[in-house]
Design goal:
Layout (H helix, E strand, L loop, with lengths): L1 E8 L8 H10 L7 E7 L2 E7 L13 E2 L5 E8 L2 H7 L10 H12 L9 E9 L4 E6 L8 E5 L2 E5 L3 H6 L7 H10 L14 E2 L4 E6 L4 E7 L14 H19 L6 E4 L4 H13 L5 E7 L6 H8 L5 E7 L1 H15 L6 H15 L4 E3 L4 H4 L4 H6 L4 H6 L35 H12 L1 H13 L4 E3 L5 H9 L2 H4 L3 H9 L15 H4 L3 H12 L2 H4 L5 H13 L7 H21 L1
Parallel strand pairs: 13-14, 13-16, 14-15, 16-17
Antiparallel strand pairs: 1-3, 1-9, 2-3, 4-5, 5-6, 6-7, 7-11, 8-9, 8-10, 11-12
Helix pairs in contact: 2-3, 5-23, 6-16, 7-18, 9-23, 10-15, 20-22
Length: about 575
């Protein structure tokens, strides 16, 4: 994992003094605390911070150049880089790093070499001879990349803050903030909460001609689709193939020259990863789990009931009052809204992993999507027509089925009709979850929580070959994580058959009258009300109704408003400083 920023002003030969350089490097140092370097080549400026994971020597530091003058800055890991050296007969390599392999493949194959990569990555290659830059991002967008391309200025960065420092006059995109409060959608399209700063798309590469200041190629190099040769004739065949594919995925994810840990919960996907590693490999993982004082949601207690044989188990208890106290600071660090209490708990757990001097962690992201773990998928396959139709759109729902549309909280001038697509079948719903409304924001939160602590988060369930295999096979083979549960049964393990849909005490926390009073005070005097984005009257009424309900319903509307408020407060100061 690394942090990088590329900057060019095509109309002037801009120079950075040492203070300017240090500022940019400091803003991304959490992503790469092991080494930092700035390089200026003509009008091109490269800022790079490295976390040493593969080839720990200084030879593998970046920016890295080849003999042709091609230069790369890279964030992530290429898991199959050793296989690619053999496949393409790459010779005279000077390091043992995956970074150098990228340069060698670009030189030998050209633009389409990205198709051969198995890993999590974003990178930028500067071709000095042809005055072009080549940019690519991994298939699912595990690694983030943001860019600004306006007039004669081009910037690519793993973070938004360096871009804000390099360009004067960037404004908050209040329409996107309002859309987030209204629909609950975030990170589902190219726009961000900042005008003119966009998200580089997953599964794409782009080539920009610097002489002409023109995008000459934008290509989607991979698409998730059903592959006939991967379709299994029956469930038994599918189950065995799934285990084989996952074993291969794990082998690739273990490519590292540093220790690896596992974020372990009572969820079946992380237990599956733990047991599979224990049974199929010789690796001993350090496991990390967070819990809550509220026993109903305590993962530590739930794991005790399963009685796993965990050799190294680190546990922390999360305090809800500390979450509220630290939220504003974390919204600033995350450069936007946070997923919920669970994301903050995840951030605290990564902090613990860092304290243990571990640089890489596994997690189970992607299992709910490809193994149909969400109750919404179950409901869609239900024979009951009302249940079936409910989820045939791209609206946001809570894990227990509440629709999270809050258009009534936005003032009428900013209201725009949420154009919700009608989705015809489960394949379309699944694609929507994977590439738009669910997985992209989960991966962003995971990346932020890990990278802010100098830890690389890996997601073996999102190995692209495993994903292709799962997607190609019957829903009924996968529904409710069936193969994972069957594996755990075969290992004679206790496990929870039903997913804990709501796994934090967030809803109860917002019912506290003192907390309600504080939040209403913050919002009443805040930026959302001042700028007439929020319909304060409707928000108060909705919060009062929520507090009076006997049953606990969904509190996401409160979370959205509080996050949006803290975001504007934090970045209003940042942009004006």
């Amino acid at each position: 994992m690394c942090g990088y920023t590329y900057y060019i002003n095509l109309s002037s030969n801009k120079k950075f003094n040492q203070n300017d350089v240090n500022k940019i490097l400091k803003l991304q140092t959490h992503r790469g605390p092991d080494f930092a370097k700035y390089l200026n080549v003509g009008k091109n400026h490269f800022f790079h911070n490295r976390l040493k994971v593969i080839d720990l020597s200084d030879r593998a530091n970046q920016p890295m150049a080849d003999d042709n003058g091609n230069l790369i800055i890279f964030n992530g890991e290429i898991y199959n880089y050793k296989e690619l050296i053999k496949k393409h007969k790459l010779k005279n390599l000077k390091t043992s790093s995956d970074t150098e392999v990228l340069l060698a493949l670009y030189k030998k194959i050209g633009d389409n070499f990205v198709k051969d990569l198995n890993g999590i990555f974003t990178f930028l290659i500067y071709n000095q001879k042809f005055q072009q830059i080549y940019i690519a991002r991994d298939r699912f967008g595990v690694k983030p990349l943001f860019y600004y391309h306006k007039n004669n200025i081009i910037i690519f960065s793993t973070e938004i803050k360096p871009i804000l420092n390099l360009v004067k006059g960037v404004e908050i995109n209040f329409n996107e903030v309002a859309d987030y409060i209204s629909s609950g959608k975030y990170f589902h399209k190219k726009e961000t909460f900042f005008k003119d700063i966009e998200i580089f798309p997953a599964s794409f590469f782009k080539v920009i001609n610097l002489k002409k200041n023109k995008v000459i190629k934008l290509k989607k190099y991979w698409e998730l689709k059903k592959i006939k040769k991967l379709i299994c004739k029956n469930y038994d065949h599918f189950y065995q193939k799934f285990l084989d594919k996952f074993k291969t995925a794990l082998k690739y994810n273990f490519v590292s020259d540093v220790n690896i840990s596992l974020m372990l919960s009572s969820g079946n996907d992380s237990i599956f990863i733990h047991e599979f590693i224990k049974n199929k490999t010789t690796k001993n993982l350090n496991c990390f789990t967070y819990g809550w004082k509220e026993k109903k949601y305590d993962e530590i207690k739930r794991l005790k009931n399963i009685n796993l044989k965990i050799k190294k188990h680190n546990k922390i208890l999360i305090k809800t009052n500390e979450i509220f106290q630290n939220l504003k600071n974390l919204v600033y660090k995350f450069e936007g809204p946070i997923g919920g209490f669970g994301t903050i708990a995840q951030y605290d757990l990564f902090k613990q992993i860092k304290k243990n001097k571990i640089k890489v962690a596994f997690s189970g992201e992607g299992a709910d999507e490809f193994l149909l773990g969400y109750s919404n998928f179950n409901a869609f396959l239900s024979k009951e027509k009302n249940q079936n139709k409910k989820f045939q759109n791209d609206k946001i729902y809570s894990p227990d089925g509440y629709e999270l549309n809050d258009i009534d909280l936005i003032n009428k001038k900013l209201m725009k009709k949420n154009k919700n697509k009608s989705l015809k079948n489960l394949n379309q719903i699944l694609q929507n979850y994977i590439f738009h409304i669910k997985l992209p924001k989960l991966l962003l939160f995971y990346d932020k929580a890990s990278s802010l602590n100098g830890v690389e988060g890996r997601v073996p369930m999102l190995d692209f070959e495993l994903a292709e295999f799962l997607y190609s096979n019957s829903f009924h083979y996968r529904l409710g994580k069936k193969p994972i549960k069957d594996y755990l049964k075969n290992q004679k393990l206790n496990f929870y058959s039903n997913k804990l849909n709501v796994n934090t005490p967030q809803r109860e926390f917002f019912k506290n009258k003192l907390i309600m009073k504080k939040i209403l005070g913050i919002v009443k005097k805040g930026e959302l009300a001042k700028r007439k984005i929020l319909n304060l009257k409707n928000f108060k009424e909705k919060y009062n109704l929520y507090n009076q309900e006997k049953e606990i319903s969904n509190s996401f509307f409160i979370w959205k408003v509080l996050n949006a408020e803290y975001f504007i407060q934090s970045y209003k100061k940042f942009l004006n400083s």
